[in-house]
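INFO  loader      accepted 1 record
INFO  loader      residues=256
INFO  predictor   begin
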Amino acid sequence: MLDARASAALGQGPTDRLRLGAFHAWVALSLIRGVPTPRPVKVGLAPDGHEMVIATGGELAVLHDVLVDEEYAPRRRPQAILDLGANVGFATLFFHRRFPEARIVAVEADPATYKRLVRNVGSLPRVTTVHAAITASDGPVTFYPSAESISSSMYPRGGAAATVSVNGLAVATLMQQHHLESVDLLKVDIEGAELDALRVAPLDHVGELIAEVHYDLHHGDEAAVRHLLEGFDLRFVPLDQPHRVLVHATNAGREP
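INFO  predictor   done
INFO  writer      dumping tokens
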């Protein structure tokens, strides 16, 4: 696990750094000693002090992945971004900070997580939040919320709470609803539903794709991804968790 000082360094001021460092240490203790998990922490993040609420160790890890390691940094400068599986808004914040002129549609399925997404980034200029699951076809779907928000999924997993019904939207429908003829950056982290959703997505209208692919939740492999994204320049980045990979794909047929 990362050092608590690395987490503290993400805070804007002394109080924020103290809160983040203490939250990190408490999360570590809860894993090692079995002490109760900490309460959510509200902090201002450097360099601009934007306030976010962080509730779990998994969210803290994603905060590092997105803001420090910049795993969602695109090769091009996008004007229209879809953040699919936005969780509590770390990637949305990253995109907004780097591309303040871009229009961002942030989509999250988990009801409780969506509330914090709105709380964290819903007031940012040019950001629109949508409560929906990204699916292959429109209509209600069964969703499995998890106590660890980054593990909520349309697939049953350990730790899932009672199921809920969530509105499902195909990527094409989402684009139509928000009057987007094309998308410069399509970021996807939807916990196993990505291949089904992308197979029917209008990928010829996507300039760049960054997707976390979960081979462990959906029976797929690198060959299936390469076939699906034929015509894209591809880069596969292995992740710490087995059977998962981050795919960076640039549409060679679309000008930047």
